[in-house]
Predict the structure.
Amino acid sequence: MDGSTIIFYLLAALILGSGIGAVSSRQIFRAAIYLLFSLIGIAGLFFWLQYEFIAAVQIVVYVGGIVVMIIFSIFLTQQAGEKLPAQRTDRKLFAALAAFCGLAITLLQVFQFKFIGTTAATVPPTVSNIGNQMLGLAENGYALPFEVVSILLLAAMIGCIVIALKSKPQSI
Amino acid sequence: MIMPGLYHILFISAALFFIGVYGFFTRRNLITMLMSIELILNSVNLNFIAFNKYVWPNKLDGLFFTLFVIAIAAAEAATAIAIIINLYRSHQSIDVENAQDLKY
């Protein structure tokens, strides 16, 4: 057992532990902080898998963007120090049962299947490889989805501004 | 403890997915439901990267799908939070039980 294995299990415990905290904590701000640690753990797992670019994107977009936005919206919509109302026990029980059965079925199927890796030469996920393929127009280039995602982001930005605008009272 | 590989990461990813599903079922506050959705999307990202690394290391397709999922998740979170803030302004609450105007 070497250092890499120990780091993997620590990251796994961090991800799952703070994930459970994020869905079960009754103080909403605490739940957001648990979510933050879960996302940091996933970024660490991407580093562990040596996909450094994706790990950096994960930290920048999720930890730096989405969690901060969630915390802002908590400040805008919740009274400070107020706990969420307790959920009905039967609803919790059936939700836990459904989630556990789904997990059991998924894991049974996954562990029965034998994944066979390809033996072709590895393409390292360096930034130059990613950039060349993402903006490439040749075969296997991702230029069209890239443009589609940029239009989607523009549309989402305009939509957010329109939705969140305060409607002015009509002056006669 | 054995050397972690593809199946370990698939276990983490499946467990995180169903933790998110549990949160989505039990939570009644819109922001916490959004947080559960973020957990689900992250488990999917983890799956894409693990398959890309262990099964098809000769391609980068899983990595690109992860990038697109992250971009779309950011757009989705921004839109959802705009809707939540607007709902709070009109109803003074972000509980799904109180947002029933379209129900009848």
Notes: Chain B touches chain A through 72 residues (CB under 8 Å). DSSP finds three helices and no strands in chain B.
